[in-house]
Design goal:
Layout (H helix, E strand, L loop, with lengths): L5 E2 L4 E2 L4 E2 L4 E2 L4 E2 L4 E2 L4 E2 L4 E2 L4 E2 L4 E2 L4 E2 L4 E2 L4 E2 L4 E2 L26 E2 L4 E2 L4 E2 L4 E2 L4 E2 L4 E2 L7 E4 L4 E5 L8 E4 L2 E3 L6 E5 L2 E4 L2
Parallel strand pairs: 1-4, 2-5, 3-6, 4-7, 5-8, 6-9, 7-10, 8-11, 9-12, 10-13, 11-14, 12-15, 13-16, 14-17, 15-18, 16-19, 17-20, 19-21
Antiparallel strand pairs: 21-22, 23-24, 24-25, 25-26
């Protein structure tokens, strides 16, 4: 753990986890063995980071966010309060024979979140899914299929209802597949359901 990291006394950080400089781990958060947390991250109260999970730099996990292994989060990712990134496609407590399942009875699958993306409060990402760069998952949404870069998705199951820019604000259409961010003025172009930044 970096000497620049701040870990509150009530947090549970395994000695085999890596915590980057400038990162703060708040009360009752748990970071498991083999997890890697980048620089300048904020791990909120009661948040959970599973074994081997990798968080990039400048990631923010809000209170009680649950990030199960083997999730991968890029730089600048925001995970809202009580959001869940799952890891079991077919969850059961017991085998068909009725005995308690062990780690040998299932294979964990992870959620991947691209750089700059945000997952709103109480949203659920059902593994294995990928949320693209700078995408925005609305509060309470349930993501069951991959989310494109810059997509705004809402609902259960989550569906795309628009596009957002790097500022997180819904983009306005200028016509002919061109969109503009009302906050920054940056322009984006959509081709075949894919949005890209215009140079």
């Amino acid at each position: 753990m970096s000497s620049d990291a701040r870990v509150t006394a009530s947090a549970d950080v395994d000695g085999r986890a890596e915590i980057g400089p400038g990162t703060t781990v708040w009360h009752l958060a748990q970071i498991r063995e083999g997890a890697t947390v980048g620089a300048n991250c904020t791990i909120g109260r009661g948040a959970y980071v599973g074994p081997g999970v990798r968080l990039g730099d400048n990631v923010k996990l809000q209170n009680y966010a649950l990030v199960y292994e083997p999730a991968r989060l890029g730089d600048g990712v925001f995970i809202g309060p009580a959001a869940v990134l799952t890891n079991d496609e077919y969850p059961r407590a017991v085998t068909p024979e009725g005995r308690p399942k062990t780690a040998d009875d299932w294979t964990a699958v992870g959620v991947t979140i691209g750089a700059g993306a945000s997952v709103g409060a109480r949203a659920v990402c059902v593994a294995p899914v990928t949320v693209g760069r700078w995408a925005l998952v609305a509060a309470g949404a349930v993501v069951v299929r991959d989310v494109p870069d810059f997509a705004l998705v809402v609902g259960v199951p989550a569906r795309r209802v628009g596009w957002v820019g790097r500022a997180g604000v819904p983009l306005s259409s200028k016509g002919d597949g061109v969109f503009v961010c009302p906050r920054t003025g940056e322009e984006y172009a959509e081709t075949d359901g894919v949005l890209r930044e215009r140079s």
